[in-house]
Amino acid sequence: MTRVEIYTKNWCPYCARAKQHLDSKGVSYEEIDVTNDSVRELEMINRSEKHTVPQIFIGGQHLGGSDELFVAENNGSLDWLLSENTKGKAA
Length: 91
Hints:
The chain is α+β, with helices and mostly antiparallel strands. The chain has a single domain (4-84), classed as Glutaredoxin (3-Layer(aba) Sandwich), CATH 3.40.30. The chain is built from four helices and four strands, in the order E-H-E-H-E-E-H-H. The protein has helices at residues 13-24, 38-48, 66-75, 77-84; strands spanning 4-8, 30-33, 55-58, 61-64. The chain has a four-stranded mixed beta sheet, with helices on both faces.
């Protein structure tokens, strides 16, 4: 399965919306809550070059935030990213 990581804060409605969408698609993901974790938040900023949440990574590649998630869903690239990153990996 493709590794999906999502950096979140517990009060963020965009984070909740992104997680709800991934859940509705049956996508497993690792949630990294940076609400009170400045070290993990700095990690997120270094990886994404963004200061906002959520920040979503698929197969180690930065997708973006909630808006980018829904753009990818609407143009069909989200399913492609999720499946492309599983090619050549054992199930």
